[in-house]
Amino acid sequence: MSDEVNRDYQVDSSSNNPGSMAEFRQYIDESHHDLVTLLTHQVTTILNPILADNESKHDRLVKQVERITRIVDYDEGNVFNNPEREENIPYLVRRDQNADEVLNRLHTQRGYHYQVTRIVEDVLNGMGINVGLMHRPYFVSAFPSAVQMTEVPMGVKNPKIITKFAGEGGESTVEHIAHYLVELGNLADNENLRMKFFPASLTKNAFTWFSYLRPSSILTWAQLEMPFMLNFIEQN
């Protein structure tokens, strides 16, 4: 027992005085209460800044998401109120056009549409997720990983795709797909393989078009075939 306890209470270990024992128990209770109070204060001092910081981050995230919602709602409202507005009409790259030049021109003319993407980037980067959707430094396939990882059957070689579609005019999308499926042979029966090897049949403008498709946006052959045909409509 500490000198302070001995000095304040002078409790004789051999004494059976009920009053002394009551005082001692009271002292222990008060000390326990003081200890709990001190610990509570220390824990509060440590946790309050952490909780406040988390709440602040949450508030900032909520505000940024609200900004995205307002912008998207405003843009959709413009489409609803003015369906003929040129900026909201999907643009098809003709076979006599350079896909890179068309895309750059659209980026310049419709730059305000890309602010939503930049805000989403800011939100994700603020959460510690390092992304750069607008400046992706590498090619990301439009196919999901399930398609990319599909392999030809054991003992079968990968197909040699000879037919190429450039998207520069004088080419038929229907004929190209027909030639491609013939070259693919029995592998064409597997939808994933049919999709996986199709980019190998594209070159120049056509491959540029494919490279700009949204990552993991093509899940079926139909989702690949139809946009391909629409983007390279045969010229009369």
TrEMBL record:
Span list, region Disordered: 1-21
Domain of life: Eukaryota
Bias (Basic and acidic residues) ranges: 1-10
PANTHER family, A to Z: AMINOTRANSFERASE-LIKE PLANT MOBILE DOMAIN-CONTAINING PROTEIN (PTHR33223:SF10), CCHC-TYPE DOMAIN-CONTAINING PROTEIN (PTHR33223)
UniProt name for this protein: Retrotransposon gag domain-containing protein
